[in-house]
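Give me the 3D structure for Protein phnP.
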Amino acid sequence: SSDLVVKFNDAITLIDAGRHDLTDRWSPGSFQQFLLTHYHMDHVQGLFPLRWGVGDVIPVYGPPDEQGCDDLFKHPGLLD
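Predicted structure for Protein phnP (80 residues):
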């Protein structure tokens, strides 16, 4: 898993969100934006509890990919 926090001026950006325990270290709403390098589960699994249910729109940036991490859910055997 991977994640990197970048603080610049007053903005906090999370680059990748691979750790499942990110909410133990950061509360939802802590980040102004997310940057994903790619959409494998070990780079996105911590994103969901940090982003949804916050109220404010939090942008997520990443490379173009029509399936995103959706293809991992459709083909779970790839994770075996």
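Residues 47-51 form the longest helix (5 residues). Let me know if you want a second pass.
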